[in-house]
Design brief:
Elements: H1 2-19, H2 26-38, H3 42-55, H4 60-72, H5 76-89, H6 94-106, H7 110-123, H8 128-140, H9 144-157, H10 162-174, H11 178-190, H12 194-203
Length: 204
């Protein structure tokens, strides 16, 4: 198994190198990393973003993007380290706070997650995912009324997000407000979110 892992890592590195033949600038390496990420080639993307950082250690976006790839691989400690570095480089980087909060939540560090999501929306009041993510963290902390407030704000900013309706419905359910829970589950179900359909059927 170890030999397979080593060979796989080498292949990923070679893929990045081959994909970036002729790439000279940090921007070109970054674009290659984004392309590999979009193909779900997360290890390859990490290699490319690492090249960007080597060429330009002050590139906050590269740290954030590499953190995102680590997140998708379940490597949350490394993701947190990269998001933290992105924030050190650019303390106004709202998305990096949001992403680090998400990684903290995956670790079960919900209070730290809430703090980061809060900072994200302070920096960018229009960042709908940060409200939704903070709502999820509030649910994990049993703070359902605050969760409802955040999901409502997320929906206001992005009415097309069925997950926000579903999760608000869950918070209403936990508070025993069944009429509102059913309404939110139905709305999310009508938008094609199958989990909400299951939740609606379970309450009907």
């Amino acid at each position: 198994m170890k030999r397979t892992a080593i060979v796989g890592a080498l292949l990923f590195s070679l893929v990045c190198m081959a994909a970036a033949v002729g790439a000279q600038s940090a921007d070109e390496w970054y674009d290659r990393g984004v392309a590999e990420y979009d193909r779900d080639n997360y290890e390859t993307a990490i290699e490319c973003f690492t090249k960007v950082i080597g060429l330009n250690p002050g590139n906050a976006e590269a740290y954030n993007s590499r953190g995102f790839a680590y997140d998708d691989l379940g490597r949350y400690s490394e993701a947190i380290a990269d998001y933290t570095k992105a924030i050190e480089v650019d303390p106004t980087y709202a998305k990096a706070y949001n992403n680090r909060g998400y990684a903290y939540a995956n670790f079960g560090r919900y209070a730290d997650a809430v703090a980061d999501f809060t900072r994200a929306v302070e920096l960018d009041p229009g960042l709908a995912p940060a409200y939704k993510n903070r709502g999820d963290a509030f649910i994990d902390l049993g703070r359902y009324s605050e969760a409802i407030s955040d999901f409502t704000k997320a929906i206001e900013l992005n009415p097309g997000d069925p997950e926000a309706y579903n999760n608000r419905g869950f918070a209403y359910y936990e508070l025993g407000v069944m009429e509102n829970a059913l309404a939110d589950f139905k709305k999310a179900c009508d938008m094609g979110y199958t989990t909400a359909c299951d939740n609606y059927d379970a309450l009907e």
